[in-house]
Amino acid sequence: MFRGSAVPTVTVDEVAADAYLLDVREDDEWTAGHAPDAHHLPMMQIPSRIEEIPADRDVIVVCRVGGRSAQVVAYLQQQGLTRVINLDGGMSDWAAAGRPMVSEDGGAPRVA
The pTM is what? Predict the structure, then answer.
């Protein structure tokens, strides 16, 4: 369902502070740690909730290391969304770069 060819990517350093981040990781990964203003939509829910994804602005899609998010970007492009971009390195690179993170479980934010 999510297979595709090369997709547009950005590195953590290229992500603007006000970017629309779409986090496609599972609930437990989101709970452990995510970007403060990210929007959570697990990968397998994308087809049934695609209307929640903005089509009028750039959307940076993120997972743990960039594999799942690349699949989601390819799928969304096939569905006609042209402003979707994969975050190369995902939340692992986000955390390594010292970008802000929050958790939902009261613990220190971490990439799970």
Answer: 0.93
